[in-house]
Amino acid sequence: MLESNTAVWDRLDDGQRTRLTNESARWSISNILHGEQGALGLSASLCDIFLDPGAQEYAANQAREEARHVHAFTRYVRARFGGAVLPVGDTVGNLLAELVATPVVYKKIVGMQMLVEGVAMGAFTTLFKIAQDPLLRRVCQLVMTDEAFHHRFGKIWAYGTIPQLAEEERNAVEDWALEVFHTLLFNLVNPEQKRLIYAQFGLDWQWVRDAVMEARTDDHRRALMQRSSNVFRTLIKTLLKAGIITERTRARYAMWVNMDELAAEGDRMVGDEVAEEGIRSLKEINAGKRKIVRRIGA
Prior knowledge:
Elements: H1 7-10, H2 14-49, H3 53-81, H4 90-101, H5 105-130, H6 134-161, H7 167-187, H8 195-198, H9 205-215, H10 218-224, H11 231-241, H12 250-254, H13 259-264, H14 272-297
Helix pairs in contact: 2-3, 2-4, 2-5, 3-6, 4-5, 5-6, 5-7, 5-11, 6-14, 7-11
């Protein structure tokens, strides 16, 4: 909870703290749902942009998978929170709108497949580890079995494309990735994004923002980013391994993490183990279905 251990917590009694925690969970999961809707729209738009038939087929398949995710989280929000999906936050909404609408392929792939999918993998991993609801944990794991491949596609694209770009184009990709990273880092969970929630508790969102900024300093953010599971550390690692961070921008990221440590780490990403366990469980389920079909056929 972003607001815990701040002056916000001091203004609330135990019941209000519980309600705010639940409303924050509803806001987070609603934005995950909106993110899946944006990924669905973007995947469909890639079908029109890609020239290679194999790439078109991949984009169409991702659209099918994103539709599955939208369906799952829509049903979950209805069951868990009584059907009320909260509006998308400004940061997520504006970024998704740009990614879906842009005709620039690198913005779509770097923005969605690497950055947004990277955030999603980090968020799903965190929910899988800390959520008390076993249904939410299972939904996150199953969605991750798809998202891990989407994230990997972005890295494969970068490995094959970035080295072939002219210097001016490569710099444009690098600068845009840094811009999006900073937008997500400073605004993804900014209290302004949750301003609709605070009104229920008689809290002014600007006061909440100031209270959170007083307690959650850059040093605090930097400390959180030392954890291997931290979403933003994962994003930096993704960009670094894909060759999208060079000496031009390295120092901007080094403010938050040890870049030498990241460079020395393997290619395994946060959430890979959770996704792989989900894939193993799906194989067991599907194997059981095939046995039933064979028995019926016999």
